[in-house]
Amino acid sequence: MKTYITSMKTKIASHRGPHSSAFFTPLLIIAAALAVSAPCHADTEVHMFCNDYLDGFHNIPSVSGSTSLSFSGALGHLTVSASCGSISVSAHSGSDGSGNGSYFSGGGSWSDTITINSSDPSLNGTSGTMRTTYNLRSAVNKPGNDLSYSLSGSGFQFNDNIPVGMVSSQFLPGTFTADVGFTFGTPIQIGAILGLTANASWPLSSSGDWTLSSSGMSVLSGGNTVGYTSSSTMGSGAGSNVSSGGSFAGFTLTNTAPASHGTIVSVLGGTASVATTLNASFLAAPNGVLLASDAVGFSGTISDKFVLQLNYDPTAANALFGGASGLILEWLNPASNTWDNVVLGNSDGGAQQQHILGAYNAGVDFVLGDYGVDTTNHTVWAVIDHNSAFAVGSLSLGSVSTPAPTLTIIPSGANVILTWPTYAPGVTLQSTTNLVSPVLWSSVSPAPVVVNGQNAVTNPISGTKKFYRLSQ
Fold first, then answer.
1. What is the mean pLDDT of each run of 10 residues along the chain (472 residues)?
2. Fold observed for domain 237-397
3. In whole angstroms, what is the distance from residue 184 CA to residue 104 CA?
4. Domains of the chain: which residue ranges?
């Protein structure tokens, strides 16, 4: 069955010339049809309009794949980025001193296919509910112009025109959950779409910066959380029930998603104060963040103290940070939408903390705020009492740009071997037979295998000449 995710925008019926007091205010209307058997993909659609007397009308077509598009005009700019699990839209429209205004509209989407199996075999084939947690951060500046948004996805939909006069660094910030029904053992498709329209009229301006990202999931049957395992292109997931007074230790999950770091998340200690379900689900790589592991959403310990451990990719650590000694466990702070030292999210705000070089020692290290890195076994760990999305990073180098992966082609008999580093998840090898515009790129098969820390694909030297590239 094919998957369709469509984005429909209202047509521009008319506009006024210079010195007009208003422009049209179409809202980005988005609809999504859910289906199965589709790979994870992301799209961006950018539509821009500026006054005819300045930049004119610009229509940039959508691009499939984890991507980002941007456009700058005389009176503003628009940037849209989308990857599996995350969408960001920034629209800024302004006016000049002669009465000319501008209009920007754009949106992004992602979708993925997920299969959920219950830890209780008797539930397979029955109905369940997938509860996904999303982080939404938005900053707006609308002193008196049109700024509208459309946010929809599996189990949720919001469409609104932001009130006139709203000037806020955080409009609609925070966390929300969305429920989707499914059948245990049967693939379903999930996804989200975010659109934003900014419309300015002289002498005022209008701007918005929005980011939506998934941060974990849990699974219910009959209204009760249950243990499960899940698989998707975005990442693996699992849930495990723990009785009151039971130990959290022993929970572990390995990310088996393609093009991932293969990160393992483990709980090394802690005791449940009430009966609960531990949930972990690997997430898409966050845009613009340097990480030496996959990101994982983890929940279920409530406010109980526990020890969380993630292993890291040493190749990525060396390439991104020049080594592993400065690595720490980071968490996604929902208030600021930034990745911070994980102990700062503890109930004491990180007042008590101690950094340790070495493996976790249950006899002496089970102290809230203790955290460390074990460069021998390639793991980081921390004693914490909060839940969020977690990953391995190095705050001291947070402003460094990720180096672009290099594609290497090595002749080997009747074949060529194409390799590139594993530290850049989400990168796809593509080929084309012609570089004359319009160039049509397609994904190369077979899928890469990891050899000596490098992604590797073997292709025969025969037939039509081919050109290769890496795309993200």
1. 24 27 30 35 60 51 62 77 82 74 81 92 95 82 67 79 51 76 94 83 75 87 93 90 96 90 97 96 82 94 97 94 93 81 94 92 95 96 96 65 66 82 71 79 80 78 80 66
2. Chondroitinase Ac; Chain A, domain 3 (2.60.220)
3. 42
4. 4-215, 237-397, 408-471
